[in-house]
Amino acid sequence: MSGQTNDFDVIIVGGGLVGASLACALGSLPEAESQRIAVIESFALQSAQQPSFDDRTVALADASRQIFSGLGLWQGIETLGVAPIHKIHISDRGHIGISHLDRQSVRREALGYVATSRVLGQALQARLQTLTNISLLCPASVTDVEFSHASASLKIVHENETKQLRAGLVIAADGGNSLIRQQAEVKTLQHHYGQSALIANVRVDRPHAQVAYERFTATGPMALLPTIGTEGDTQRFALVWTEQPAQIERVLGLSDVDFLAELQQRFGPRPGQFIQVGRRDVYPLMMIHAREHVRPRLAFIGNAAHTLHPVAGQGFNLGLRDVAVLAQVIVDAWRGQRDIGSMAVLRDYARWRRRDHLQTMATTDSLVRLFSSSFPPIQLARNLGLLALDMLPGLKKVITHQAMGYVGKLPRLARGLPL
Ligand SMILES: Cc1cc2nc3c(=O)[nH]c(=O)nc-3n(C[C@H](O)[C@H](O)[C@H](O)COP(=O)(O)OP(=O)(O)OC[C@H]3O[C@@H](n4cnc5c(N)ncnc54)[C@H](O)[C@@H]3O)c2cc1C
């Protein structure tokens, strides 16, 4: 496809967390120097409105740290601000079930890391701007896309003009409401949990000691992630509180004092005394799974392929593993002079990702359903499960490895190898 104006080898639609990560992976490769790659993103670089790079806190699995390290991005992210997670305390409110995951059991420096999407966005965008072989078309939005056997054509609105582009491969990284997915008429499996997530930063009266808390309640799961606040403040957690939308609206409207009192009542004394809460934001939650992840000239990554409930903090981690695998499949095809938009190549990506997608989605979905149930036999089973987990170190190690993102056959980046 190279050589003609408005013709690209690869067009990535969506320059959010996942699309920008893929552009950084492909754009840094010597093989990409002869390729034309574009990223189309609705929001301008560094726009405060960029929805993917907002103030929500993201728990990064250890495999994600490894992938970012392989892309040469981790050091920059660390400098901008990450907090390690040394322990995860899991409990079921009002019941005896308690379990702990500990970095010592897997002999790692940390089980995972906590950063804001804004910090990740800053590191990704800074790198993107240094990659001369990537055309950044932003702010620009795709409005139409059509696929033929040989190429894809996209209509975009850029600088108040409608333009027509052609690509050998379109990568849809345009999020949960993917326009590309709708236009390609790819069917989805969807589930509305009847829950929203409220997020906020909260302070406690003592250091968090790098412990994260996952608390299941009858009305929805809650999480506290240790963060590093300004001037190294180690008493700050990022809170994710999920519940029915009407309840979340009520909690959103509480005064700070009442909000902290209700939070304390739900979490109990374990994390410390809650003394301060920052701005509160709300996100609607649902599960979306695209039934196909590749078509000729088309591949889906990140939330466009799978949108998860944030209970286990896996959505972006799963998307970053899509990036690591798709980048490897593409670069291997370039090296072997194969057509990267052909189904022969794209099927390798879809097959490879299948197990991780299904396993991560099933685990996340069952955690929400199982732990939101007030049906006594299910309550008993889940508490026995938590207690058993604490008594079976072998099982716990397997679960900890999964939570750290080490699932199935690992791509080179997740093994600490260059692409
Ligand atoms: C409350 C909450 C907490 C979370 N916590 C965690 C966590 O702890 N760990 C974790 O791993 N994940 C977490 N997630 C999930 C994570 O935020 C998402 O998985 C991640 O943002 C997905 O990134 P994405 O790039 O695929 O999609 P998005 O972030 O939705 O980005 C899509 C991008 O595409 C652009 N776009 C859309 N349409 C077009 C178009 N037509 N043309 C051009 N551009 C377009 C958008 O502007 C946007 O920049 C959480 C989510 C929520 C809601």
Give me some keywords for this one.
single chain; 20 strands; 419 residues; alpha+beta; eight-stranded mixed beta sheet; FAD/NAD(P)-binding domain; binds flavin-adenine dinucleotide
Q: How would the blueprint of this fold be written?
A:
Elements: E1 7-13, H1 17-27, E2 37-40, E3 57-61, H2 62-70, H3 74-81, E4 83-85, E5 87-92, E6 98-102, E7 112-116, H4 117-128, E8 134-137, E9 140-147, E10 152-158, E11 161-172, H5 179-183, E12 188-204, E13 211-217, E14 220-227, E15 236-243, H6 245-252, H7 256-267, E16 274-277, E17 281-290, E18 294-295, E19 298-300, E20 306-307, H8 315-335, H9 343-371, H10 376-391, H11 393-403
Parallel strand pairs: 1-2, 1-11, 2-8, 5-13, 11-19
Antiparallel strand pairs: 3-7, 4-7, 5-6, 9-10, 10-11, 12-15, 12-16, 12-17, 13-14, 14-15, 17-20, 18-19
Helix pairs in contact: 1-4, 1-8, 3-4, 8-9
Bound molecules: flavin-adenine dinucleotide.
**Which residues form runs of ≥5 with pLDDT under 50?**
none
Report the major sheet. Answer: 9 strands, mixed
Structural class: alpha+beta
How large, in whole angstroms, is the Cα Rg?
22 Å
Number of domains: 1
Q: Helicity, in percent?
A: 25-40%
| Mean of pLDDT | 89
CATH superfamily: FAD/NAD(P)-binding domain
The global form is globular
Bin the strand percentage.
25-35%
**CATH fold topology:** FAD/NAD(P)-binding domain
Ligands in the model, by name, code or SMILES, are: flavin-adenine dinucleotide
Cα distance spanning the termini: 23 Å
Our count of helices gives 11
Which CATH C-level class is it?
Alpha Beta
Number of strands: 20
Q: Architecture in CATH? A: 3-Layer(bba) Sandwich
